[in-house]
């Protein structure tokens, strides 16, 4: 049985894909289903994919500062459409200060470059399980 | 805990405890610098100082702001320009594209029409200083020509380079949403054009730096680079261009990571392979066609957001290996690279590092000072062998278009990205400050404030840009765009018509869009804009 469905995306014109690709592999190897949306995404395309794919967690890989502008658009957009999948961010450009600001906006978790695979998997499992329980899945 | 060094190089080449005379291939022993097969370098003499072009990555905000950066760096002694465009320009989008909004000028300079190129290159001695551009070549070369025309420089006097990556750009972080055949054709158009009109300009710079930042090792980097070079050479030859008309201007912009001797061996092996290939396979007769120019950026991927001062040390070691290997131009990725394109503070540290190596250490006094080192000579030969085996393997898998379309290239890069992070996590690759010898965050503060300073998106560019589009003579613009569209449907070289289109106030996004249309693709891959013609 799947541990959960995770959407992975990058925002705007950020094309540094190494982190996103590596995390996709890690999650797949550990029993998650990954919907890899990849580059050139916006809050609207992420919202649509989250609905279409009924994902449990939305993961956004950041290697530019575009998340600072897109996340404040994305969180209310998901709320308006009653998408309850939590959003997590990952990337070494996210400073400790940014992480606090993002969590205040409703981001469920921020993984920086110190994050270990085990911790990432544990946290993603928990977030996915919570969402699946809320949605009455499995 | 003790950590015994790995008994292989980063590319997996097993190494012994020491090397001696038996390890140096007899065939390589008579090689001299400045002579075929050029493993020991292109030149047999070293200038007293400044033997390589010293440059730092620059470009942020709009063109005027970036121009000021260039002038500041030149005032500090920089001897070449290294320009990077922002994410939207690299993806062939104008700043008014909705997807561009939050990234205008934040990771490079925003450049999208003629006036931008003029502003970018104002007061730059274009006939003396080499302008290296990480910018889509079909657009940079016309922009450079228009700036030269405006400032009174002859086109044939222009120096510098623009990077090419038609095979791998799309899957390694430089996506343009152009189909494979279009990307190859645009590259060949620029090479062909410059071989005739811009004899001092390097229109054919194989940029193995960028794609190898996906976690490739040295052998993989150069193997993929050679596969691409060989295909483009054949394509340009097929157009009837003599090999000796363009091969002397081929350069390779390589990565330089932390595996010190392997990076040196990689460059020496590359020069030897290139020389043999050009002479024996492609029939080049001019010795300048045999001796490839190798330039480098030090690896941004090797730098860490932890303990930022360590990155200065990494850049220094990498630059040292490049100078020892005889690189023709060096850019040091700066200490703040894990967070941003360089701050002025980081620029100065990078440039000063190069100047200290150049002016204080004396290591550039002698050409190829490591020539004859048993280990370096053995590793050069071994690296050469492995690169070539991989080239043969990849070429045996089919036409590069098929490898692209079937996703083989994509999987290749995905696997290496994954491998890289696994190596760090499993500590098969030790990175000081990241997976060993860590500091608690509260103590890891040196250089942090400066490195985390953000560049605000230059959104103020959007309104005047929209006004510019409304106020131009659109009949002239659309006529020029139609010519690009028609030419792109044929085999005509696109550089002259793209230059005319920029001159007629067409924009980067518009020109790219009509090229896409000629290849049966939508004008805007994101469906936000309709074709203006």
Layout of SSEs?
The complex is a heterodimer of chains A (138) and B (533).
Chain A: E1 4-11, H1 18-29, E2 32-41, H2 43-53, E3 57-61, H3 67-80, E4 87-90, H4 96-105, E5 109-111, H5 117-135
Parallel strand pairs in A: 1-2, 1-3, 3-4, 4-5
Helix pairs in contact in A: 2-3
Chain B: E1 53-55, E2 57-58, H1 63-75, E3 80-84, H2 87-90, H3 114-120, E4 130-134, H4 137-151, E5 160-164, H5 180-197, E6 201-207, H6 208-212, H7 218-238, H8 243-246, E7 250-256, H9 260-281, H10 287-290, E8 293-298, H11 309-325, E9 329-331, H12 344-361, H13 374-395, H14 400-405, H15 408-425, H16 448-451, H17 462-471, H18 474-489, H19 494-503, H20 508-518
Parallel strand pairs in B: 1-9, 2-3, 3-4, 4-5, 5-6, 6-7, 7-8, 8-9
Q: What's the main sheet of chain A like?
A: 5 strands, parallel
* Count of runs of 4 or more consecutive helical residues of chain B: 20
Give the biggest sheet of chain B: 9 strands, parallel
Extended strand count of chain A: 5
List the domain count of chain B as a whole number: 2
Folded structure, characterized:
The complex is a heterodimer of chains A (about 140) and B (about 525). With about 140 residues, chain A is an alpha/beta fold. Chain A is about 50% helix and about 20% strand. A 5-stranded parallel β-sheet of chain A has the order 2-1-3-4-5, sandwiched between helices. The radius of gyration of chain A is 13 Å and the shape is globular. The termini of chain A are close together. The model of chain A has no long low-confidence stretch (mean pLDDT about 95). Chain B is α/β, with parallel strands linked by helices. In chain B, about 45% of the residues lie in helices and about 10% in strands. Chain B contains 20 helices and 9 strands. Chain B has helices at about 65-75, 85-90, 115-120, 135-150, 180-195, 210, 220-240, 245, 260-280, 285-290, 310-325, 345-360, 375-395, 400-405, 410-425, 450, 460-470, 475-490, 495-505, 510-520, and strands at about 55, 55-60, 80-85, 130-135, 160-165, 200-205, 250-255, 295-300, 330. The radius of gyration of chain B is 23 Å and the shape is globular. The chains are: A alpha/beta (about 140), B alpha/beta (about 525). Chains A and B meet through α1 and α3 of A and α2 and α15 of B.
